[in-house]
Amino acid sequence: MADIFVKNETATASGTLKHRFVWALTMWAVVEGKITSTSTVYDSTSGNTGASEAYMCRLIGVPYVAVVAKELEEEKVRQITQFGGQIMKVDVETRNYWAERMAAERGGCFINQFGNANAAEDDHESGNYPLESTNVFHEIASQLKSRGFGLPHYFVHSAGTGGTISSVGKYITRYALPTRVLLADSQHSLYYDYVVYQKYGNLSAGDEGRPGWAPPGIAGIGYGYNTAPIVFRRSTSLLRTVIDEVVRMPDTATVAAMRSLRGVLDIDAGPSTALNFLVALFKAHAHSEGSEATSEKDRFSVVLIMGDPGRFYQSTYLNDTWVDSKMARYGGMEAIRCWQAKIDE
After folding, report:
1. Are 154 and 283 in contact, with CB atoms under 8 Å apart?
2. pLDDT score for 225
3. Residue 193: is its pLDDT beyond 90?
């Protein structure tokens, strides 16, 4: 048997896991003088970070422009604009280029969630485990303890910027905690090979030896749309040295898990959460089969984060017609139903 704990970060004011991270990112940018009272803030985003950035910029009284893909779900566009954010739509692979260029041309701030997440997360660490901390794992540990549970065997999380899982990994390493950090990666993301084999640090999109990105992928996570090489503190904040394991899952299985969460457990979770859940199930099954053994008195446990709600994806991953169109090469809804039946068991 195993316990799977889900920390619900959709309860934040801007509705996703990114609220906590963007608070740290904004505080870092203000303290460092990168955002001033006359700044307009620009960033490339898949939606969730953009909504939280719009919220924080409104809070401190500066304009915000989200540079997004032309295909971004309307649900996510509304999520950004409800907090006063402006939208600039571009080809998905050029988001970073346009965000940086517009900031430079207009004297604004390119806050760069991908390159600066590491600095922002570190800037707001208490440095002492018993004290309050903005680190999400500190809060997880405190909440589990208050309910009579110990630290989990695994923390499972996917990576977009890589900031959240890296900050958790550094926190666990800093205090020598027993929890292992597991990166859940999508089917065509380059992060798996980056972490395991240190690959793609000098290859741009189109270079020989670097696989092409296969859309649609899993929204908000993975490394593929970014055409630049994977370089820590430039194009990513994923620190590979604090990741203990990586598991890659088919995208159809992730979409099926998203639907299973809604149908069986009544959890309205987005696709990145579904990927985390799927990998947690995989580890729990491995434990039940004896390959992830724990002591008799030590019940196997996994913690994952619910990053955003499924309602943001009504027009995409939860839409059968969209799935049959965009994921036809993987079997469309037939493959989804096959995976879902197995997951529901």
Report:
1. yes
2. 85
3. yes
